[in-house]
Amino acid sequence: MDTTMNSRMEPTVMVVFGAAGDLTWRKLVPALYNLYLDGRLPERFAIVGVARQEMDDAGFRRKLREGVDLHSRRSVTDESTWSGFADRLSYLAGDFTTAETGALLSRRLEGLDREWNGRAVRVFYFAIPPGLMEAAARQLESLGVCRDCSRDRLVVEKPFGRDLASARQLNGLLTSLFAETQIYRIDHYLGKETVQNILAFRFANSLFEPVWNRRYIDHVQITVAEAVGVGKRGGYYDTSGALRDMVQNHLLQILCLIAMEPPVSFSADEVRNKKVDVLRAIRPIRPEEVHRVAVRGQYGRGMVACEGVTGYREEQGVPPDSVTETFAALKLWIDNWRWQGVPFYLRTGKRLRAKVSEVAILFRPAPHQLFPSAAVESWQPNRLVLRIQPEEGIASRIQVKQPGTRLLLGAVDMGFRYHDAFHAASPEAYETLLLDVICGDATLFMRADQVESAWGVISPILDTWESVPPADFPNYQAGGWGPETADLLIAKEGHSWVQPDLPTEEGETEAP
Ligand SMILES: NC(=O)C1=CN([C@@H]2O[C@H](COP(=O)(O)OP(=O)(O)OC[C@H]3O[C@@H](n4cnc5c(N)ncnc54)[C@H](OP(=O)(O)O)[C@@H]3O)[C@@H](O)[C@H]2O)C=CC1
Ligand SMILES: O=C1O[C@H](COP(=O)(O)O)[C@@H](O)[C@H](O)[C@H]1O
């Protein structure tokens, strides 16, 4: 632990709109606390929380301390360290859309500048319900507190719009009020260590890049499975569904990292340009094709981790006849030189067998089979699995000769786990991303055109699903791998899902 604050970093104030909410409590403040423990925050750093709930500074600190105790990867071990952090937290009770709260906030920011003898970097974090983003942006602009393009930033949480039209409208408003370089659209998957490692894996090793194309890769599978249900977020989730909540952002971003061309450098715009190229190359889905390339599901009751759980329609805030999908699987084609003819399968869902996110790259067979057919009875394709969470790591499956006097091939795995290789805990995604905002690095954030292109990919599916309600919901049992139709989707090309290896209690992996 190194709580020496960084004296070379610019003085910074982070204003959190929506500071009494779940995100601030569960993710943002625990992440900032961990940055503090690592000595990664500026020496002069303050957090100003804004929300309508009546609370004083002490109440705000108590609430956030509880959040840190419950959700931080490192707990509070000594009170003086916590106080050193908590002294930087203050609260402003009020509706941020009113002139009164705006004036109080402006005064507080000016006060900090005076105290610190200079204009601080200002980060405005919109941790507010999606419907309030536009009002918050207008208010921020009218206060005139976010006009220095090089020092003032705003962070916009997901969901960024609810379809292409609303995302365009929000982008239009934000870019009319602020410079694009000030806007940080967050997708927390991009802050995950192992998601970032996809780029390191692909572009820092000469071993894999030569085979990373249609000549050697047969197909790609991206799985982001969750064991949890919608919990207390049923009200929000029911207006969203798996396609908007997970595919439009997290899964398509992972796909971009797997499929993008090498950027010239690791600068924000170089990386983002290459990712946008991928989204633009995804073959548009015609409405009449939707049923062939996309599958939806909703969980019914079942067992997860040996416990009985309710179905989606019984969750808090969910209507009993809801037709919102909690599972989505897609088949996408990327129409470019590298990926022509290689299907990309994506699937995500709640209340699946386990929480696990991974990318499986399945390779084509060797061009000439020289072994007798008896030797290759149990042949399996070469594959590479990039495990994002949990037990982050990489495993490749290769064929070897089985020991013995007969020539018989068998598949074995070679791999590494982050934990075994580095013996260090990874930072949470929000730690990485908040530090990047403080430092003004937008590489891991979404640009306007990325967000819109991603909405463009899923729009035909959203439209078709909305116009034709499903007749068979709920169509998968909690605790499985989703509806049978997801297996059929991929079986049409002669493929089957690679079911992730699951950790057992002893830390060994269990066959799926
Ligand atoms: N929670 C999560 O895990 C995740 C959340 N997000 C996104 O983050 C954002 C926030 O989510 P979450 O924290 O869960 O939402 P909550 O509903 O828990 O919190 C919203 C906050 O906004 C405040 N607020 C609402 N209206 C105003 C207003 N006019 N003036 C001042 N404050 C206001 C509320 O406090 P009060 O009523 O006291 O004003 C509350 O503190 C959403 O966009 C969500 O989609 C994204 C990913 C994950
Ligand atoms: O953005 C979201 O992500 C979480 C899953 O994130 P993870 O880091 O736990 O994998 C998901 O539960 C939530 O519905 C969604 O809004």
TrEMBL record:
Pathway the protein acts in: Carbohydrate degradation; pentose phosphate pathway; D-ribulose 5-phosphate from D-glucose 6-phosphate (oxidative stage): step 1/3
UniProt KW Cytoplasm keyword: no
UniProt-annotated catalytic positions: H250
Highest taxon in the source lineage: Bacteria
Gene Ontology CC terms: cytosol
Cross-referenced InterPro entries: G6P_DH, G6P_DH_AS, G6P_DH_C, G6P_DH_NAD-bd, NAD(P)-bd_dom_sf
EC number per UniProt: 1.1.1.49
Ligand binding (substrate): H188, K192, E226, D245, K350, K355
Segments forming domain Glucose-6-phosphate dehydrogenase NAD-binding: 15-197
Pfam families the UniProt entry points to: G6PD_C (PF02781), G6PD_N (PF00479)
GO biological process, one term: glucose metabolic process
Residue stretches making up the Glucose-6-phosphate dehydrogenase C-terminal domain: 199-497
Binding-site positions, NADP(+): R52, D95, F96, K158
Catalytic activity: D-glucose 6-phosphate + NADP(+) = 6-phospho-D-glucono-1,5-lactone + NADPH + H(+)
HAMAP family: G6PD (MF_00966)
NCBIfam families per the UniProt record, alphabetical: PRK12853.1-3, zwf
Family: Belongs to the glucose-6-phosphate dehydrogenase family.
Record's function text: Catalyzes the oxidation of glucose 6-phosphate to 6-phosphogluconolactone.
Protein name per the record: Glucose-6-phosphate 1-dehydrogenase
Gene: zwf
